[in-house]
Each structure stands twice: as C-alpha cells, then as structure tokens.
Amino acid sequence: MTPAARVQAAIVILDGIIAAARDNGPPADRLVADWFKNHRFAGSKDKRAIREHVYDAIRACGSVPASGRAAMLGLAEEQPDLRDLFDGSQYGPAAIGNGEQPAEGGIAPEWLEDRLIASGIAQNEAEALLGRAPLDVRINRLKVSGEIDDLPEPGEPLALPDALRFPSGTQVAAWDAYEQGKIEVQDLGSQTACSAVGAQPGETVIDLCAGAGGKTLALAAAMANDGTLVAADTDRRRLSQLPPRAERAGVHIAQTVLLNPGQEADALAAWLGEADRVLVDAPCSGTGTWRRNPEARWRLSEAELARLTKLQAHLLNVAAELVKPGGSLTYVTCSLLDEEGVGQVDTFLKENPGWKPETPDLPLGTRRGAGIRLSPSRDGTDGFFIARITKAC
To answer: Is 393 a known active-site residue?
Structure first.
C-alpha cells in the first residue's frame, strides 16, 4: 500500500470508530482488527502504519470528530507531513478543499475536561492520560519462588517486587513463561490496588467486581492459595474467563459467583458479615485508562457518568454488608474523577460512622482525601483511585 492509501484506510476505520462511539458499538480495537481481516492484502508494515494513524488521530481529537477525514486532518495539524498525502491519488484521500476544517484538538470533550480540572488534574497529568501505555506483568508467586530467569528479555523492575515492565506491544502471551502461568499481564496500578487490599493466607476475601479475574489471581497469590476467595460479577461472559486463567496460574481457591444486578446480596448471602476483606473494583468512566482506550472519552456522557456513580454507591453498600467487624473494604476505580473516587468514599463514611479510613502502605500514589491517587504522569501507571476503609469491631 502507498502511504496515501494507508491514510485513506485509517480514515475509513475512523469513520467506523466514530459511528460506534456515538451508537455504543464495538470498541476501536475490534473495528481495526475487522478491517485487517477483511483486507488481507495489507502487509504487516501497512497494518502497523494504519493502526498508528488511527490511534494517533483518536488521541489528537478532544471531542467526537465529524468524520474520519476530519480526524485525520486534525492529526495533520500535529504531523504536517500527513497533509502531503491528501493528494487525490488512486486509493488515497481526496485533496484538501478550501475551507475544509480539521477536527478540534484537546484532552476530552469540554464537559469532561471541566470535570478533570475540578478533580485537581493539572494539564501535564491530563496530557499524560493520552500517552502510550507500556506493558506490565506480575510474577506469579504460586509458580515462581525466587528470581524468574526464563524470560526472553529481563524487563524493567518496578516499585512492587513482582512487577516488571516491557515496551508496548511486547508479545508476552507467546512466551513459555506466560503459557506456564509464571507471569500475568497486569498494569502496575492494578497490581498496586491488589496490594492495597492486604489479603493474607487463611482469610476470606471477596472480589466483588471480578470481571475476568485479573485481580482475583493476584489476590490468590497474596493468599498463597490458602483461604476462601470469591470472585463475583454480573457479567457471565467475563466471569467465565476466570476458571481457565486460574488453572493456568495454579490458583485453586477461587470460586465464581454470578450476580444479578440490583440483587447482589442474594447470591452472596453465605458471606454476609463473614469476609475479612472485600475488594470493590467498581465499574467506572475509565478516565484512567485512556492510554489504552483513547476512544473511551468519546463514549462517555454526563448521563452515563451519573449512572456509574449511582452504581458505585450501591456496590459500596453491598460490599459493606459482607465485611465482618474489624475487616476492611478496599474501593478502587480506574478513574481520576473525584465524584467516582474520593467523593464516593467521603459520602460513604459520612453515612456509615462505624467505618474509618486506613491508609495502606503503598510505594506509589499521592494522597487524595481518604484515599490515594495514581496517575500516568507521576506514577507511570494507569490512573487509579484507591481507598481502604475498616469496619469497627
């Protein structure tokens, strides 16, 4: 493919991503993969260039662009050489017309930028949200007792003892160590959130919003496969991914519980007031994960944010009923918005005077109210809010 044809391909894919963002359609990575599947003439260099054009354009546009062409023209404001590829050549994009307007730049839609500012996110922190994320892994101590010495490349040691970092795009899933369950792909921020739980062998621990179980596996390792570990979620498809992952990782104590939305306590009745620790990795806006999913900021609306904050408050109350006296609840969101983080915890503490904040001993993060905030610019992680609160004895 010619360079101009690659730009035109990116424009076509961006048109699909923009439509999906407006209509809650498939995510960008799936649309990119589908285009490659249906256009097998594109070689590996073509695919790499097209993918870079697509994601660079997404990052360059604050609000949802009018079209894929407008998005690429917006990217051309940052990468002027791209303008020369709008040359009207065969398979390339048409020449730029007089008065044709590029999409506007920015961090996010204006209303969302305002929320970030109100949450104390400085400009440099906001810009870091749109950088490229590295690939972090966690050494699985259920399979590795000492130094891990059979990786194709060593990785950069990070702030947590079992965390290693590799360049973005590293094909870790093809490594023998991954197939054998010796390592798990997990962002350092997510590993830090699991560390904040403080799970110990022999305890009863509940991962209330387990999803596909990434944090459940980390908790099992912290518990040395000793105790009761419950992975609960309302998403049957995602929860079904945990058993094969647990088998590969050598996790024997994790049991899954499928929840009905709004009726979570019914399925968890056996553990009411019994849990030493509960992790609530609550559904959220995902503002802290834009490095990986930059189009997510096009999908979020004020109405959706309001729905999420209501759900988060509900899940906090569900989790609180599971904790035994003297036990703890760790609340986590991959968001930098205060209304999803410190605001939720402050409200809970005001409404539940029998609880108090407890600052976990973490090597990363900055205090934010009753919790800790992680951000890409300061900590090199995805953005997270983490708070641990304890129930009076």
So the answer is: no
